[in-house]
């Protein structure tokens, strides 16, 4: 069905990270500060990114496991920072 299904599998974690940013920007405009409707999907997306990286390491087709592990290490550390700032943006003044 897709011409390059392996590329979609490898690109899924960064796409989800981008969706985190888009969700936090849109949901703050729609729901306002400190809404649980905008926070709970964000709390589920980072563990989903980590789970997808574990699956990519386990079933390494296009790259070796060491390459997938390095990709996961770099992306998960960057995605954690993005995830933290997305949560801070969604909560707004809810932390103070």
Search tags:
0% strand; mainly alpha
Write the layout of secondary structure elements.
Layout: H1 5-31, H2 36-58, H3 65-91
Descriptive notes:
This protein is an all-alpha fold and 96 residues long. It contains three helices and no strands. It has helices spanning 5-31, 36-58, 65-91. Helix 1 packs antiparallel against helix 2 (36-58), helix 1 packs parallel to helix 3 and helix 2 (36-58) packs antiparallel against helix 3. The N and C termini lie far apart (49 Å). The model has no long low-confidence stretch (mean pLDDT 89).
The tally of strands reads 0
Helix amount: over 70%
> What fraction of residues sit in β-strands?
under 5%
Cα shape? elongated
Structural class call reads: mainly alpha
Discrete helix count: 3
Mean pLDDT: 89
Task: List the uncertain runs.
Answer: none
Order of secondary-structure elements: HHH
Rg on CA atoms, Å: 15 Å
End-to-end span in angstroms? 49 Å
Largest sheet: none
Question: Could you write a compact summary of the structure shown?
Answer:
The chain is mainly α and 96 residues long. Helices cover 80% and strands 0% of the residues.
């Amino acid at each position: 069905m897709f011409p390059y299904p392996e590329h979609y599998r490898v690109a899924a974690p960064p796409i989800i990270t981008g969706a985190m940013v888009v969700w936090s920007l849109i949901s703050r405009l729609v729901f306002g500060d400190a809404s649980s409707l905008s926070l709970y999907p964000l709390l589920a997306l980072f563990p989903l990114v980590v789970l997808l990286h574990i699956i990519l390491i386990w079933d390494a087709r296009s790259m070796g496991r060491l390459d997938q592990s390095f990709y996961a290490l770099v992306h998960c550390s960057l995605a954690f920072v993005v995830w933290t700032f997305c949560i801070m943006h969604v909560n707004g003044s809810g932390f103070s």
